[in-house]
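User: quick one, fold this
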Amino acid sequence: MGHTHQKHSDKQIIIRNTELADLDDVAALSQQSFGSEVAFTQEHFASQITLFPQGQILAEVEGRIVGTSSCLIVNFDDYKGKHSYEEISDHGYIRNHNPEGVNLCGVEVCVHPEYRQLKLGRRLYEARKKLCQDLNLKSIVIGGRIPHYHKYAVQMSVEEYANQVIQRNIYDPVMTFQLKNGFVLNEIIPGYLQGDEESLEYATSMEWHNEDYKPRG
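Assistant:
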């Protein structure tokens, strides 16, 4: 993808593909956002860029890398039902990237806390949607955390919680954002992200459908 420049609050925002020269910066951002246990390292990002360069996107504000998005292509039918984050992301290395697949699979979006007011998450999601359309892929699929579920787990099942978020009766920082970006719920996945106590290890399988998709011959 080419650079897209936008002025926002007098700050210049650039959305572009991640390059090998960015490894230190993107790894530092991941580490700062997620902590050392689950953060992507230089090795993860290098593998992602090598295997699927178009799918790795970042946001720069005034020359500082403050957001990243990592993707691969899969046939999601191969993973439907119970699967884990480690399985569908190949532990972050995406060696299971399938250029012949029909679904763009998002494995991480990360935005620096000090820059959240610039709506960089939405911009990175828009870049993913454009990539999905450019590559004529059927949809974007993501396994999303539901970090506020632990507050409601005593009162309601995970299915009821997801339903309440869809109805906008409950706000969840991840799922609400995905719904606002046009994603719909496929299913709830138990045991998705090991150690995710906030979500009680549940995730929502969410999908955005590319209306321009043309099935291949």
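User: anything notable?
Assistant: Residues 52 and 181 are 24 Å apart (CA to CA).
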